[in-house]
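Go through this:
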Amino acid sequence: MADLDMEARDPNNLNDHLKVNFDDVLGEPEGAHSADCVWRTSYLCFNGGKNCCYMFLTFICGLPLALCWGCEFAMITFQHVWQITPCMRIFMINCGCAQKFFGTCVNCCLAPICEAVGMCFSQVTVTNK
């Protein structure tokens, strides 16, 4: 809790796409202006409604959702630490062994044949007329 920044609550800019202000949603072009009092009141209603609705939803849903997401990421971490990473390590160890086995077979069996065929064709010369 000591390192919790109460001012910068999105330090990694995860939700930059949600920065929606009154000016981003409503705008009156030249020649189509409402009365100043309507425009000011619309601004207050927009911001007040947005803020009140967000606060209400966070009070109702924020804590249970935070708990659910915390549990979800804990399960993913557990799965990676205790299941996926060890399985990947076993797979990589077995693939390394198989790579050495097949590499040795190719070098012992196929390489001499390819070398012999290459020697046979190395004396072939092609001339264009």
